[in-house]
Structure prediction request, 209 residues.
Amino acid sequence: MARYRGSVCRLCRREAMKLFLKGDRCYTDKCAIEKRSYPPGAHGSNFRQKQSEYGIQLREKQKVKRIYGVLETQFRRVFKEASRKKGMTGENLLKLLERRLDNVVFRMGFASSRNEARQIVRHGHILLNGKQADIPSILVGMDDEVSVREKSRANVQIKSAMDAARRKGSSGWVQVDSDKFTGKIVAEPNREEITLPIQEQLIVELYSR
Prediction:
C-alpha cells in the first residue's frame, strides 16, 4: 500500500502551520516549525510567491490530506462519497474523514497522533466490534465499539497516549472507558469540534472546476 515515508515535519513547514502529525512533540519547542516556519528546500527561506485562487484551493486540499494521512486517489474517492450524501459536501467530507478507523483510534486517545494510530491499526492492536481490524480506512459507524486487543494493553506506546488523553479529554462524539480500553461512537462527528483551521469550501471549489 502506497504511503508517505518522508519527514512529517516537512509537511507542516510546507503548509506553514502545525498539522500535529507527531503528537505531543508538536506542543513543545522541539517542533520543527517553531525553528523554521518557512517551506523546506534550498530556497524555502526566500519563499515569497503570491498564490493564485487555484493555488490557495490546492494548498487547502493538500493540508487536509496531510492532516488525515490520505493520498490522492483515496481522497478523491472520499470526496465523491461526500458529494453523494445529503447536506454540505465540505462538511460531509470532513465527517467521513473523522470516521476513519485510524482517526477514531486517535480521537479515543489510544494513540498520540493519527500517524501512530495508523501504525497501531496496521499492526493488529485494535478490535472493531470484537474482531481484529487492521485497515485504517474502515469507516466506523454509530454504536460501533473500538477496543485495544487484550494482549496489546500493556503496550507502552498505547498506555502513554491514553495517559495524555485523560489530561486533554476526548471528542464529544466518542465515549471512552479507559479502564476497559474500549470506546464507542455515540454521535455523528460535529463540525465545530474539528478545531484545525480548515476551509473545506475551498476543496469543494477546487473539485468543481
Notes: The longest strand covers residues 145-148. The beta strands are 126-128, 131-132, 145-148, 174-177, 182-185. The chain has three domains: 1-50, 54-97+197-209, 100-185. Residues 100-185 form a domain with the Structural Genomics Hypothetical 15.5 Kd Protein In mrcA-pckA Intergenic Region; Chain A fold (CATH 3.10.290.10).
